[in-house]
Amino acid sequence: GAEGSTLMSYFSKNQIQALKPKITFSTLRDLQCPVLQSNDLQGKPEESCSTEELFEWLGAVLNQVSLDNKSSSFLSTYCCPEPNTVVEKAFLCTITGFIIPEKIIQLLEQLCCYFGDPKLAYWLTLTVHGFADSPVSWRESEHGFHKGGENLYNFVIFRNLDYWLQMAVGAHDDCPP
Q1: Whose CB among 22, 32, 87, 108 lies 3.0–4.6 Å from 80's, allowing a Cys bridge?
Q2: Could you give the 3-state DSSP secondary structure of residue 21?
Q3: Is the pTM of this model over 0.85?
Q4: Where are the domains of the chain?
Q5: pLDDT one-digit tens code per residue, 26-39
Q6: Other CB atoms closer than 10 Å to residue 95's CB: what's the count?
Q7: Sign of the dihedral through C-alpha 67, 72, 76, 81
Q8: DSSP string of 118-156, one letter each residue
Q9: Contacts of 142 (CB under 8 A, 6+ apart)
Q10: Cβ neighbours of residue 59 closer than 8 Å, sequence gap 6 or more
């Protein structure tokens, strides 16, 4: 009776709040960015950075780690890979919540519209990160938490609409085919 309806109202209120994604925007000023060439995954000295260097750099940026390699920093002495360029303004948008694949495709399509303006980015990224302790992963396997719970993929999209797809999963997880 009354107990059941109280529980129903509690869950309906809290589930609605839980399912509504939280969106945050920030502007990163004078950001050192790796120079990338869409057709060069390995990178070339003094010409472009590799996919691995980009992935590491992106992790530092998303975790707001300083890129200036100060010896006094106890957190990180990481610096942006070479060659790099300073971007006056970079926009970072974070959406946290349960997001269905159709919405991710919509986001990708909207991001590609930025290339219509010649003043805007040469490349952009979209990272989709699963919860570290998510019970599911790709394919048939359960998601193994073990050490870090890695469970993400990252699109790097270039102005000519070439793209890279990077994936990271834990050592005990299956990767998509």
Answers
A1: 32
A2: coil
A3: no
A4: 22-96, 98-176
A5: 999 999 999 999 99
A6: 13
A7: positive
A8: TTS-SEEEEEEE--TT-SB-STTPBPP-TTT--EEEEEE
A9: 135, 136
A10: 65
Residues in Cβ contact with 3 at an 8 Å cutoff, skipping those fewer than 6 apart: none
Evaluate whether 163 touches 157 at the Cβ level (below 8 Å). yes
Phi and psi for 51 in degrees, rounded to 5?
Answer: -60, -40
Type of residue at 11: F
Q: Which residues of 76-92 are buried (b: 16+ CB within 10 A; e: fewer)?
A: eebebbeebeeeeebee
The pLDDT value given to residue 153: 86
The overall average pLDDT reported for the chain is 80
Radius of gyration of the chain (CA): 20
pLDDT tens, 80-136? 889 999 999 999 999 988 888 899 999 999 988 888 877 778 899 999 887 766 666
| Cα–Cα separations (whole angstroms), residue 148 to 2, 12, 52, 161, 169 | 44, 32, 18, 32, 9
The pLDDT value given to residue 34? 95
